[in-house]
Design brief:
The chain contains 19 helices and 26 strands. It is of the alpha+beta class.
Amino acid sequence: MAFAVFSNLPKPLLLLFLFIILDTPITKSQDPDSRRYINCRKDANYTTNSTSFKDNRDLLLSSLSSAASISGFSNNTKGQFSDQVYGVAQCRGDLSLDECRACLSTIVKESLQVCSSGMSLEIWHDYCFLRYSDKYFFGTVDTSAYYYYSTSTSNATQLQLFNEKLGNLIDILINKAAYGDSSRMFATGMVNYTSSDKIYGLMQCTRDLPNEECYQCLKVYSDQISTCCNARIGARVYAMNCIIRYDSYPFYNSTAANELSSPPPVAPVSPPSGATPSNTTGGGGATKVIAIVVISVVAALALIVALLVIYLRRRKAVRRNTINESHTEDIGSVESLLLDLSTLRVATANFAEFNKLGEGGFGAVYKGFLPDGREIAVKRLSRHSGQGLGELKNELILVAKLQHKNLVRLLGVCVEEQEKLLVYEFVPNRSLDTVLFDDERRRQLDWRKRYKIINGVVRGLLYLHEDSQLKIIHRDLKASNVLLDAEMIPKIADFGLARLFGGDQTQGITNRVVGTFGYMAPEYAMCGHISTKSDVFSFGVLVLEIVTGRRNNGYFGSEQGENLLSYTWEHWRAGTTTELIDPSLGNYYSRSEMLRCIHIGLLCVQEDPVERPKMSMVVVMLSSETVSLKAPSRPAFCIRQSSIVSETHGVRRNQSSRKSTLVSRNEVSITDPEPR
């Protein structure tokens, strides 16, 4: 029936249709050599009495499959401590989303059937890969398991030429997968090794690998091909972090894969000068019809493309003006960071509650996945908030220009419709306060990690104050604004309140005091005097919190009503400093490093800003025990309250109309303008 319909087509259209069918590459279902490998490590099983690991694993597999079917890749972690499980899921780069979803669904079911109690599993399918383990494995090449085999029983007819062409193709694909423009870490390509024979190749790394590690993985395992498959015209290598395949037929979707190379198109042959095309019986009419149809379609497509270009340019201009009409020169430098609202809605499952990481004065923060597989944190300004747009503009302009390992990295921004969104790299261990002040999680922070966090925050502040092209005062440094990545490396975040200084300026006066009680320097909280020493004070408070495991906005000792600064000072004077140390550390810490950090913390919170050290000096004091430290003076007073946003001519309130008066220990009256 179908053939009868096609037979009624004009001969040129029928030939064109047949050509398209014959030229279609082999699809996944047509692949004659589809295989899978499973490596379940049953030597390390969770106990039957412990269901936490199993529950975390099942939850992880579900989230991996869901996220990877959207972007092609996902890595995630579920649970804590001994029940924590890490996982990666990835589809081959040429798969459609439907194919990816189907493949992942299949191997997730298989993994639960064949490895029901194992704590570690790898499963390779031709089109997708799944791995989970109770051990952290993200970002590094694992050589503990791999498979390689020949996919063909035929040998190359011209071995020397075949090996030469294959070697060239492999080198090109390794570089393209590891360092190419594609964030998929995926590459395909084709070369001719005779006039009639071709070699098709494919390489891919898991997207959690750095570029150098991807290159190393592909290089190491491509060298294994000669061991298993010398002279064979097809081979595959499945490793923990990369896959390699080549064959004599197009086993991948070249259109979806954006193939590296392909046979050059045949150039059209022009008729001789003065010649006229012949007009055979019946053919001329069909040719004219085809020509009219083609011209009409091309004209329509050209019109659609032109209208689309005009629309996109106008929308981009509107978004740019919406962000900041008065700072076009600054916004121009971050234009490439603009993201579509539709992309972020898909990434966060339309800001689903289960993706919500937390909520602050700015609004909610959601976890998501970009189409290239990167995990992100989306900061969403509350629509009902009376503040925040100015802070968003400020944060966008500042952070986009800052690049440092101890500063959180901005990936994009979206200002569309009623939404105002900032997109950051996802930091899996969240903020320092969620770990440090939690009775269970704080045990993850041994002294080595705490000392590394202190040093990382110092480096980040030094960059802001002295090493960046801009001179920036953060103004709201605190434990909740220090994020921890998978290796507990600290990243300073939340630049919405940051103040930019120019030239050699290091201090100023503001009529708008913003920040968090307990971390604000007294000269800033009382008089609006702002300087780099304001951040130094906040850093000193943070150091004492890290050492003691105590919040500064609490009182210690009911009779004296001491806050953390006073509490530390009294122990310092009494020579009982070791009593300050967080009991969860036990005796596993360096006494000299600990006492030095307490000493530096007290120097940073001195009342006179001149007496506080610069961050460059703090770096020296932390890195060298031979540098002598002067004796600290009594710390400045500390206000026990939450965040504030105040102005010299009034108070902006966000929660209630209550007013109260606080009295500091040196009897200075302070108006409490309510938390923001």
